[in-house]
Amino acid sequence: MMRPLQHKLIGDLRRARGMDGPGLAQRSGLTEDQIARLEGVLPWQGELSADMLQRLSHALQVRPEVLRGEQPLTEADLDLPPAERRCSCCG
Questions:
Q1: Angle in degrees, CA 17, 27, 38, rounded to 5
Q2: Tens of pLDDT along 35-71?
Q3: Which of 23, 33, 61, 75 has the smallest set of CB atoms within 10 Å of its CB?
Q4: Do the beta carbons of residue 64 and residue 53 sit within 8 Å?
Q5: Radius of gyration over alpha carbons of the chain, in Å?
Q6: CB within 8 A of 53, min separation 6: which ones?
Q7: DSSP-H helix ranges across 1-91
C-alpha cells in the first residue's frame, strides 16, 4: 500500500532547490495548480498517478519513496550548492 504524499516536504525541497511554484511546474511538466495541490496549498482533487510522482521526484532530484515518506531525506538531498545538486539516488 502506497503511503500518502508528504506535502510539506515538496515545498521544502522546492525552496531548497531555489525554485518557485511556476519553476517546479515547468521543470516537472505539471501545472501550477497541480504543484499547489501537491504542496497542500489547494485542496487535492483526484489521485496522484505514478507518472506524476515520477516527474515530480525527478524535478526535485529525490527518489519517489522520499516524497511518500518511505525513505528518509538525506543531507545530500538538501545541502549541496545549486550547481552541484544531485539527488541521493543519482549520486
A1: 75
A2: 998 888 887 766 778 899 999 999 999 989 888 888 8
A3: 75
A4: yes
A5: 12
A6: 5, 64, 67, 68
A7: 7-16, 21-28, 32-38, 50-60, 64-67, 75-78
Q: What would the grid cell of residue 50 be?
A: 505514478
| Domain extent listing, the chain | 7-84
Give the separation between CA 90 and CA 19, rounded to whole angstroms. Answer: 20
What is d(CA 69, CA 79) in angstroms, rounded to the nearest whole number? 19
Question: What pLDDT does residue 76 have?
Answer: 75
Residues in the chain: 91
**Could you tell me which of 64, 36, 42, 32 has the C-alpha nearest to residue 51?**
64
Cell 504542496 sits at which residue? 39
Element (H, E) at 63: none
Residue of higher predicted confidence among 78 and 38 = 38
CATH for 7-84, options being 3.90.1300.10, 1.10.260.40, 3.40.50.150, 3.40.50.2300 = 1.10.260.40
